[in-house]
Write a structure and sequence with these properties.
Layout: H1 3-12, H2 16-48, E1 57-63, E2 66-72, H3 78-85, E3 104-107, E4 110-113, E5 126-128, H4 140-146, H5 156-169, H6 175-181, H7 192-208
The structure holds FE2/S2 (inorganic) cluster (2 copies).
């Protein structure tokens, strides 16, 4: 290095060694910044990833206006939990694979297949089953009885529940709207005409109640 270079650097207040040291620090900072950024991104991703649950869990469900606690495995369905842990047997197991509707349960106002709904996912939600329905002349079960909406009865709890969910949302349904509202339920005995009549009659009765 020429003397004037040293002098020039000294005049400018830094040497090449300073420059090299500075460059190393800058590079290290860049690497650290990169690592820190990656760590933050990973932490954010982990936060947004679903939690893995295992073992037995204590859960509390709001069922028919009551707070009910029990222990379940994370994989437990709402149907199993209601029937086997909480003794709420209105929803029935028929197909156990989301195709017949016999297990229909109302969760936050929406009819769901409880055989394929996780119980843990229903915490903090309003769960309604057949047991809470009005069984008097203005109720849906009475209309099914009056209009021959059942034969063997396997599908009936699901139909009554789906019908109640529909009428809670739409108290004046047309025949088409009733058909669409109940299209997630199957009756192997073919009582559909009675079911549709019962739904329309229940709508009328509920208004007069
Ligand atoms: S038992 Fe759930 S849909 Fe059939
Ligand atoms: S009444 Fe028998 S399956 Fe519907």
């Amino acid at each position: 290095m020429a003397a004037h270079d040293l002098k020039d650097d000294a005049v400018r207040g830094h040497s090449r060694r300073d420059f090299l040291r500075g460059s190393s620090v800058a590079a290290a900072t860049a690497v650290l910044t990169g690592q820190a950024t990656t760590a933050i991104e990973e932490a954010k991703a982990a936060e947004s990833e679903p939690k893995v649950l295992s073992g037995e869990l204590k859960i509390t469900l709001q069922v028919n206006g009551e707070s009910r606690s029990c222990t379940v495995e994370p994989r437990s369905t709402l149907l199993d939990t209601l029937r086997h842990r909480l003794d709420v047997t209105g929803p029935k197991r028929v197909c156990d694979r989301a195709s017949c509707g016999a297990c229909t349960t109302i969760v936050d106002g929406v009819p769901v297949y409880s055989c394929t709904t996780l119980a843990v996912a229903c915490q903090g939600k309003k769960i309604e089953t057949l047991e809470s329905f009005d069984t008097g002349p203005a109720g849906v079960p009475h209309a099914f009885h009056q209009h021959d909406g059942l034969m063997c009865g396997y599908c009936t709890p699901g139909f009554v529940t789906a019908c109640k969910a529909l009428l809670d949302k739409n108290p004046n349904p047309t025949l088409d709207e009733v058909r669409r509202g109940l299209d997630g339920n199957i009756c192997r005995c073919g009582t559909y005409i009675g079911v549709l009549e019962a739904a329309l009659a229940a709508a009328k009765a509920m208004k007069g109640a």
